[in-house]
What we know:
single chain, alpha/beta, Glycerol-3-phosphate (1)-acyltransferase, 12 helices, 7 strands
Amino acid sequence: MTATPWSDLDLIRRGWHWGLPRPQTWAPAAPGVPDRASNLGWARAEPVRSLRFLIQRGLLLPFTRLVADPKVEGSEWVKDLERPVILASNHVSHADTHLLLYALSQRTRERTVVAAAADYWYQRPWLGRALSLGLNTFPFSRTGGPAAVLHSSSELLKSGWNLLVFPEGTRSQDGRLQPFKPGVGHLATETKAPVIPVYVSGSHRIMPKGQRIPLPAPATIKIGRPLLAGRAEGSRAFTSRIEAAVRALSGAVRTDASSGTWIDRWQAAAPKARPLR
């Protein structure tokens, strides 16, 4: 029988063991062209926004009040924002997001999206969708470069959404503040968005790493004055300044640089005129 390309291909096909386990030395199976990550825009459209309002006001916020009875300091800085901001907070517990949303005014909360680790929360589609429904999250890459960080985040900021991020990248094991990753400074310098430093304390007692059921414990959320990157300030330098502001909020003594003077806080709390529609 004369060998042909088709007979050779058939021989290879019959000799290939399709059902056997993949050798350990092989790379994990993956599609040749990965799907483009979605920022789950449906979660920020009606009627989902109204449904989330009902879930938060009827379930999440009362439960947070019952479990933690949070004390909020510096709420005037997020009461009536005139432009989209980046909220940069420390991260020690899964309870942090609920506490931070509790600390915001209703108007600010409705316009805030939460960056959730894509490699943790969105591995199971149903979990990612449920999280986006209740907390208005979107998948945030912790391992990508500046382009990956800017892709969805900058679009959301430019569309008028506030962005809540955890610049440490993951929860702290011991509760101490970890070094901030430069992504938050890069995002702020590229979009010119103000950054509001926030520090949450007590959440590690509510739901420490590894704990699945929240435990009652008091919590405090401290909100600092907004920071703007200087004209000649690089993203890493601005990230360091944001980290220093969050660290200052964590201390017993808060400086005017982190919390603002009483005049600054009074001006921030004053009602702002809104344009007629």
